[in-house]
Amino acid sequence: MSDDGERGTPGKGLVQGLAVTLKTMTQRSTTQQYPDVEPDLPPRSRGVIALLEENCTVCMLCARECPDWCIYIDSHKEEVVVPGAARARQRNVLDRFDIDFSLCMYCGICIEVCPFDALHWTPEFEYSEVDVLDLLHDKDRLGEWMRTVPPPPAHDVLGEPSKEEATAERKAAGPGAATAAKTARPSVRRTGSPTAQRPAEQRPAEQEPEK
Ligand code: SF4
Ligand code: SF4
Predict the structure, then answer these.
(1) What's the 67 CA to ligand 1 centre distance in angstroms?
(2) Looking at the domain assignment, is residue 178 inside a domain?
(3) Is residue 72 part of a domain?
(4) Which of 92-96, 119-123, 148-152 has the lowest mean pLDDT?
(5) Residue-range definition of the domain harbouring residue 61
(6) What single-letter DSSP state applies at residue 55?
(7) Can you tell me whether residue 62 is helix, strand or coil?
(8) pLDDT tens digits for 128-139?
(9) Mean per-residue pLDDT for 74-100?
(10) HEC states along 131-164?
(11) pLDDT digits (tens, 9 = 90+) for 104-114
């Protein structure tokens, strides 16, 4: 019986159900046969986090910003004698860097806030464990993931060069190039008016005062 109280054709629902089954049976399956067939993941997929230990300065930003508090860092200070310097310098040495992937929610904040590019996403996702405690990856294990980090995407050819590239190009061109680049800039008058700050050729034509 339908919702409005009318009695439908007997067996209509059964026929409709069989029609859906028949249609699905004749369609091509879209199921991926994992693990027999590896999934084709986008290169920037969030699988696991890799650590480039040499870049880590133990600034603790990642551990402080992690919303799950699942990054554990220990370090100690070491004196470095610099020849010619009045005093020995100090540097942080990383003793422990663990991420607990049983707590991690893959938000990527730690990677975003790291100022030294020490943390990277890798699309590697096959690290499930029988024991949940084994999901605590230490710095050696996090370091091993670095070999699975894909190369960064190429720069936009139409984009501006980075500050570092521009400086390197200027240095390679020699000391005269920087001066030439400065003098080649259009002269800009700094006044309060936004129009007056544009180069002369870009300003709108000034109107003659009426006589
Ligand atoms: S991805 Fe998010 S939750 Fe996981 S370790 Fe980084 S900041 Fe913490
Ligand atoms: S933010 Fe980067 S440099 Fe700072 S402790 Fe974390 S991984 Fe190391």
Answers:
(1) 7
(2) no
(3) yes
(4) 148-152
(5) 53-148
(6) G
(7) helix
(8) 999 999 999 999
(9) 93
(10) CHHHHEECHHHHHHHHHHCCCCCCCCCCCCCCHH
(11) 999 999 999 99
Q: Which residue among 49, 54, 55, 62 has the greatest number of ligand 2 atoms within 8 angstroms of its CB, and so is best to mutate?
A: 62
Is 140 within a domain?
Answer: yes
Would you say residue 120 lies in a domain? yes
Instruction: Place 178 in a pLDDT band, splitting at 50, 70 and 90.
Output: low
Residues with CB under 6 A from ligand 1: 66-68, 70-71, 99, 104-110
Asked if residue 62 belongs to a known ligand binding site, the reply is yes
pLDDT one-digit tens code per residue, 179-204? 554 444 443 333 333 333 344 444 44
**Which residues are CB-neighbours of 99 under 8 A, at least 6 positions away?**
49, 70, 71, 72, 136, 137, 142
Residue 180 in 3-state DSSP? Answer: helix
How many domains is the chain built from?
1
> Do residues 52 and 140 touch, judged by C-beta distance below 8 A?
no
* C-alpha to C-alpha distance for 160 and 204, rounded to whole angstroms: 27
The CATH number that applies at residue 82 is 3.30.70.3270
**1 CB neighbour count, 10 Å cutoff:** 7
The whole-angstrom separation of Cα 45 and Cα 49 is 11
Q: Which pLDDT does position 173 carry in this prediction? A: 86
